[in-house]
Design brief:
2 helices, 3-stranded antiparallel sheet, alpha+beta, 144 residues
Length: 144
């Protein structure tokens, strides 16, 4: 299972071997990842299910999950993954300067280049979540 790096177009993470690699062949992916303050985080799709990974923890995302984002400072935001029982994960992440950082990808929304916003929009929006999962599953099936 390969995950694509959120910031670098040719970096991938092999989830089974837990290694980061560079690949220009555009391999099939099961999601996206980013190291946040040295901690592995990812959105992973397996068998039509969406998971959020943080460190060694793996959370199956259900309709009861929500992401809350709160501006912490001019350069950081606070991310909280919440389910019906409370906060499951929280961390601070850097907000990139759009004038200095040029994304290697085209995004639907201009805020999608921010890791926390990208995750929040997928988890908090049922239609977008369903589309994210089905698009990755379709790619896995067809190879396109």
């Amino acid at each position: 299972m390969m995950l694509r790096n959120f910031d670098y177009a040719i970096k991938y993470f092999d989830y089974k071997s837990k290694t980061e690699i560079e690949d220009i062949s555009n391999p099939l992916i099961n999601g996206w990842y980013k190291f946040v303050n040295g901690v592995f985080s990812a959105l992973l799709v397996v068998d039509n299910n969406l998971y959020f990974l943080f460190g060694k923890e793996k959370f199956l995302i259900t309709e009861y999950h929500r992401v809350l984002l709160k501006k912490h400072s001019n350069v950081e935001s606070k991310f909280s993954l919440i389910d019906g029982n409370g906060v499951q994960v929280k961390f601070l992440y850097s907000v990139p300067n759009t004038k200095l950082n040029v994304s290697p990808f085209e995004y639907i929304d201009q805020d999608d280049f921010k890791w926390g916003d990208f995750i929040a929009k997928i988890i908090n929006d049922g239609v977008r979540k369903r589309n994210f999962v089905s698009n990755l599953m379709d790619i896995a099936k067809t190879g396109k």
